[in-house]
Amino acid sequence: xxEMKGVTKKYPNGVLAxxxxxxxxxxxxxxxxxxxxxxxxxxFIKLMYREEKPTNGRIVVNGVNLSTLxxxxxxxxxxxxxxxxxxxKLLPTLTVYExxxxxxxxxxxxxxxxxxxxxxxxxxxxxxNKARMLPEELSGGEQQRVSIARxxxxxxxxxxxxxxxxxxDPDTAWDIMDIFEKINAQGTTLVMATHNKExxxxxxxxxxxxxGGCIVRDEQRGDYGYEV
Length: 228
Ligand code: ADP
Known about the structure:
Layout: E1 2-10, E2 16-25, E3 30-34, H1 41-48, E4 56-61, E5 64-65, H2 74-79, E6 81-85, H3 96-105, H4 111-124, H5 140-152, E7 158-162, H6 170-185, E8 189-193, H7 197-202, E9 206-211, E10 214-219
Parallel strand pairs: 3-8, 3-9, 6-7, 7-8
Antiparallel strand pairs: 1-2, 1-4, 4-5, 9-10
Helix pairs in contact: 3-4, 3-5, 4-5, 5-6
The structure holds adenosine-5'-diphosphate.
Residues 11, 13, 15, 17, 35, 37-43 line the site of adenosine-5'-diphosphate (ADP).
């Protein structure tokens, strides 16, 4: 599903953010990515949806070799991968419904299909009754639920989240986690970079720890393993 072989990322300023990373993630897995700030977690995640390109090495996602992917094929890849950010990245002038529908309109689905699917995902995240509201009228947790709805509306095989609970209080973080669990239970692969020790140590899943650009630990049902 996701394969990295000998992946190195050096930024133009000379920072070596990843050094020879090898990993294999199977369809349907739930993987936490942990590690101190600056370890390379975001870079690792950005490489998976081709926000960044590796300096060396091979990355295959969903059978697509990202190293040889043409620029014009990148949008097609992005539609097959749901992405969730710490700061939600919703469009402020669009309603909840429109923010989610937008992701489908760009793939030219019919209005009837779009409406049915958008309401379906809004129901899944518990926001059907707020479809007409603007992002600014919602709490942080609700905004994150909109962004999760958006990430899954095109039925991607994989959802990648970079610190999705980083801006949320502990109870809200758990609500978000419940939604990710539901999505994963439906067979979607989930990769989530997180600093949320409580979640990682309670809902035991595969833990990949990155330090100094290297994978230093990779355990099934692992724990968070850091004091901070
Ligand atoms: P983490 O997500 O674990 O905090 P990052 O992947 O964001 O780590 O960063 C890894 C290293 O790469 C850090 O030293 C960071 O400063 C550097 N870095 C991240 N993005 C860029 C960039 N666009 N240009 C230059 N250096 C970067």
